[in-house]
Design a protein that fits this description.
Structural class: alpha+beta
Strand content: 25-35%
Radius of gyration: 14 Å
Number of strands: 4
Helix content: 25-40%
Distance between the termini: 7 Å
Mean pLDDT: 89
Shape: globular
Strand order of the largest sheet: 1-4-3-2
Largest sheet: 4 strands, antiparallel
């Protein structure tokens, strides 16, 4: 089932949290995070959070690649064998995402 390619964000389009990120901001963050991604240090949670620090108890996936594709920030993720990772895996299975 692993890994998956996902669209993280599209430039200049409101997110679910009603935030709009210009393409240059997404590109700058993508560039800034490359070393963290290479060192397998960029993890994610299922739910958006208002705090910058990841709560390890909620970690569901690891970002293994991050890039800009036109105006979209894309990521390759690996689902982790954590309780939240199992939830994410079940969601993907239910919706038959591969």
């Amino acid at each position: 089932m692993n890994p998956f390619t996902i669209e993280v964000c599209q430039a200049d389009v409101p997110t679910l949290a009603k935030r709009i990120y210009p393409k240059n901001v997404l590109q700058n963050q993508c560039d800034r995070l490359q070393n963290t991604v290479t060192n397998r240090g960029l993890m994610g949670e299922l739910e958006p959070t208002s705090v910058a620090a990841i709560q390890f108890v909620n970690v569901s996936h690891l970002v293994t690649d991050l890039w800009m594709q036109d105006d979209k920030l894309m990521a390759e993720i690996e689902i982790l064998k954590t309780p939240a990772g199992k939830v994410l895996e079940n969601i993907f299975d239910y919706h038959k995402i591969d």
